[in-house]
Amino acid sequence: MGVKNSRLNFSKKSPKQKGPQSNCHDLWTSLKTGEKSEHDEKEHLQHVIIKELFKANFSSPIHNILSDPDAKILDVGCGSGFWLLEMVADYSTPKYFGIDNLSTFPTSTVPSNVKFTQHDLLEGLPFPDDTFEFVHIQSTGSEFTEAQWETFVYKELARVLKPGGWLEVCDPEIEFSNCGPTLKQLNLTVCNCLMARNVNPQMALRHQSLIKSLPIFSNVIHEKGHIQMGNYTHKIAKISTMSLKEACRDAYKGPIGKIMKIDPKEVDSLSDKIEIECELYKPYYFYHRVCAQKVIT
Ligand SMILES: C[S@@+](CC[C@H](N)C(=O)[O-])C[C@H]1O[C@@H](n2cnc3c(N)ncnc32)[C@H](O)[C@@H]1O
């Protein structure tokens, strides 16, 4: 299929783990991959928060391609496909492709110009060089080690972009500020678990400079959005607090809870405590969007 130089010999996760894995599924959730609807609800909430924060599903200057029937758009780590399905609803002309290493995307009732494929990015994307006008990757900063980002991920995304096409990387900082004691302890445990897997919890802060350092990209744009919890005068604070509380509840019920030696009977009171602390301490974190154009040689 003309895919060049993309397969690298990474040991992606610890050797004990088998089959496709996702750090977000492993660490932040008590759900098995099969328990789709609850997972979808959380992913949808996050999608709504990001869209409200940046006031659009993308920040790259790509309006010209959205009415082009030959244009191709790729979402990498597409999850349940909310971003792609909303894009196709808003801009129905291009062709859309979603890739995820887990089959969490819809398999039926998908518009004819949308194709989802289960595939591991670290195996190299299953597309020839110079295929897409726009490549989007969101909330996957913790899915790859810092070394994988540095040596492979941006370059592989660039490979499948057409010259003149746009890459957009959107990620949250995982380390929160102004946490109360309960959230602080949980947040610290999550960050430590990610670091033990050679993942940088603050990878979102590195995208801009790493992309800028690659000569294949130019016109790098950076946008930053502030997600405030507990302060309900902020438009998305209520929904962000709710989403955080549910994420924490799941984390306590899953592997993180085991590491923290949380008694399952305490889970509800701890997540209620997090909500109360949000109102007292007003914790916040940032989402970053970095857009860059592949150079025309
Ligand atoms: C936090 S979710 C984000 C989903 C979606 N992009 C969104 O914004 O809602 C991260 C996604 O990356 C996927 N992922 C993790 N490692 C991957 C890999 N090596 N190749 C492809 N997808 C991967 C996970 O399965 C998961 O669906």
From TrEMBL:
<protein>
    <recommendedName>
        <fullName>Methyltransferase domain-containing protein</fullName>
    </recommendedName>
</protein>
<dbReference type="Pfam" id="PF13649">
    <property type="entry name" value="Methyltransf_25"/>
</dbReference>
<feature type="domain" description="Methyltransferase">
    <location>
        <begin position="73"/>
        <end position="165"/>
    </location>
</feature>
<dbReference type="InterPro" id="IPR041698">
    <property type="entry name" value="Methyltransf_25"/>
</dbReference>
<feature type="region of interest" description="Disordered">
    <location>
        <begin position="1"/>
        <end position="27"/>
    </location>
</feature>
<dbReference type="GO" id="GO:0008168">
    <property type="term" value="F:methyltransferase activity"/>
</dbReference>
<dbReference type="InterPro" id="IPR029063">
    <property type="entry name" value="SAM-dependent_MTases_sf"/>
</dbReference>
